[in-house]
Amino acid sequence: VLRLVKLLSRGEGIRNLLWTFIKSFQALPHVALLIVMLFFIYAVIGMQMFGKIALVDGTQINQNNNFQTFPQAVLMLFRCATGEAWQEVLLGASYGKLCDPESDYAPGEKYTCGSGFAYFYFVSFYMLCAFLIINLFVA
User: Fold this and answer.
1) What is the mean pLDDT of residues 14-19?
2) Cα torsion angle, 33, 38, 39, 44, sign
């Protein structure tokens, strides 16, 4: 351990690198807060727009992946942020999907859940995550 301290005291380049690394950790809470805010806003919007879609096994919106509760919505967004089948989730949330029988849809509106807004919602979320948030976190 003392050799490492002695090496760091002599090496100007290593000391500058270590100092920069320590200073970058000061901005980490701000970036984390930005990511949490983005996920929170998109999860709430997703719950309002796609929370009534019926959970059908074999589709991307099922019992494990849905927008019916806040934790499930955040988990679904995390899947989309990592790029895991976000296009299929987009298509599963588009207009004309079967409504959940427990939701309060009107008679004759069985296939009116989902929204055309899904295209803007998922593409904007993926672009923000892929090109902005991930680069901020890595930088």
Assistant:
1) 76
2) positive
